[in-house]
Design goal:
The chain is mainly alpha-helical and 161 residues long. The chain folds into 2 domains: 6-56 and 124-156, no CATH class; 60-104, no CATH class. Helix content is 53%, strand content 4%. It has 10 helices and 2 strands, in the order ααααααββαααα. It has helices at residues 9-15, 17-26, 29-46, 54-58, 65-75, 79-86, 119-123, 131-134, 136-143, 147-156; strands at residues 87-89, 95-97. The longest helix is centred in the first third of the chain and has 18 residues, at 29-46. The model has no long low-confidence stretch (mean pLDDT 93).
Amino acid sequence: MPEFSLDKWKQRSAEHQKQYKQLLQRADKNKVLKQLPQLNENAFRDIDCLKCANCCKNYSPRFKTPDIKRISKYLGMKESVFIDTYLVLDEDGDYVVRTKPCPFLGADNTCDIYDERPSDCARYPYTDEDVLLKRPQLTLKNSSVCPIVVHVLEALLPVKP
């Protein structure tokens, strides 16, 4: 893969959506799953999330019951007050943040609750797990938000002569 350019990842993602979709549909799952840990590590080495934070600016994770309990305790709030202050139920019945960007995103792109963040945040962008292949629509959506996903998908694309 050519050197990854953080300023051109969105363009690359837009241009390669069809190839990404084909890759996710036709991939040798076992082969890809073996490659993911190293590709994920390379992507996180090459890309500083704190320079981007698109996920926190554009998405909301699901706040599951254990997340709500843990975070509200960390913030010293009753769970009901935490929910009323920060969360709303989405169309799928999941709790998500009321506002974008995430209310816990600092001006320097750091997370005010990083050590207690929701499990969805800790796992995002799922580039080191089978979700990348099992949920291709999510992966394609994430490729328009996260340069890490594009980095990994680009590395998986067949090399053209």
